[in-house]
Amino acid sequence: MDRRRRERVTSFVLLPLVLAAVAIITYFTFRTTLRLDQLRKQAVVEATLGLATEKANRLDRNIVDQDNAIMAVADPQKLPEIGEHWLPTARRETPTVRAIVVLDETGSVLTLVSRASASFREEDSFRRLLVQRMVADMELAKQPPDELRHLHRTYSGQSYLVSYWQREWEGRRYVIVAWHDIGRIVRESLPTLYGEASGGQNRLNVVDEEGRLIFGPPLRTGEFTVGVRFPTTLYNWRVQVSPASGEAIASSVQSRRTLELSMVGLSAVVIVAGVVTILVAAEKERRTNALKSEFVANVSHELKTPLALVRMFAEMLQSGRVANEQKRDEYVGIILQESERLTALIENVLDFARVERGKGSLEFQEGDVGDAVARAVEIHRYRAEREGVALRIELGPDLPKLDMDERALALGLSNLVDNALKYAAGGKEIVVSAEARGREVVIQVKDRGPGVAADDRTKIFERFVRGDPKLRGQIRGSGIGLALVKHIAKSHGGRAWVEPRVDPVSGAEIGSAFGVAIPVRRARARDGAS
Known about the structure:
By secondary structure, the protein is an alpha+beta fold. The chain has helices at 2-73, 82-86, 90-93, 121-137, 182-194, 246-319, 325-356, 369-379, 381-386, 406-423, 469-472, 481-491; strands at 97-103, 109-114, 149-155, 158-169, 172-180, 202-207, 213-215, 226-229, 238-243, 365-367, 390-395, 402-404, 429-437, 440-446, 495-502, 509-519. It is built from 12 helices and 16 strands. The strands form 4 sheets. Strands 2-1-5-4-3 form a 5-stranded antiparallel β-sheet, sandwiched between helices. A 5-stranded mixed β-sheet has the order 11-13-14-16-15. The two termini are 54 Å apart.
């Protein structure tokens, strides 16, 4: 008992520990999977961000390089020569610069050199805008000499970009302004610098501060689309980059995450199912071993009872303590009947062992089911009379002969009769009947015992399983009799079952009816059956 209790406690403790370990492993695996997913996304975003930053810096460098070229030629000491030095190379070296303006420290325009070849109307408008509004936005008082700065702002609905720096000469401060033509930047510079991005592995566009498209195709906003403002020049605009396969990457990441999480969950389920299966199998094996131990004890008792009777009556015959020849014949009959009972029990055990090893085989031949019934009943005749139980045989008319193993069938029926005598000893009557029903011959052993609970009607045909626990201590049994009955019935292509025995008058349950149905494979009417 202590060992069983220890095994049971170990099982109940082991299962929660294993489940807890699986839960911990699953948690950290889920966590690692999600972290790897985040790292993958982060790697894609960082790569895209690096590309967007490089694109923004590329345009900034292009404009700053042009500003440096202007700074080299825009000298306040030589105002009349600015145009002579700049205009011949303006299209090649400063393609986006439209005009150069030099102002004195009072904000007055000293010179304006433009690339325009005809009307100067836009230049005049720009000069007024520069003097009236732009200069005030430049914060010139905080700007050191020769420091390049940019002003990018919208005036009257039009976007302007100017580069400006200050120079000192003879104690006076001058402001040099380079007016960049944003239209040329959009039409010429951006296609030149970013043209390869529109047809490559990445898509790119430029939008203004309100998100309006300036250059490039529209991009669908997603978790892999990155926007970066231009650092110093067009700082109110931003360049946006999206991997051409952004949707595919997102879908791939999602699919991979779903697959990995599914595999983790499936692995956890498999582990738990495996552990539960092992524990259930161990518990089942433990119960089987306990049932086997009980089986050995019960078989020992079952063997002891007929052996004791055989020995007692044999000693009486040997010692001559017999009143008359009638008693002598009675004692010899008892010895024979108990020997047959002992033989049946041994055959039960041997047949059960053969079934367990998968070597059980039957020898089929055409036979009379009535003979098998009579043989099974006769084995228990003396025992029934001694216990005051009437054994009655009822055979239906025209019973067909069966293709059967008569010894095995008689052994199975003997088990049913023995079962009825043990559990329905106070019933006063046991009826063994056989009748043809369609293409089957149905044999039943009906008693007037306590009956079988509905939940046990299937289980009692399993090996080592016995019925009502309350009766186990009072009634001995091996637990293999009904299992053998089931095996013999199936070997004949039939079935075995138990059902309540019902009183035909009152409709009340008055016992149990154990049945075996054998199919008629070769039917020949039995003449004169009674």
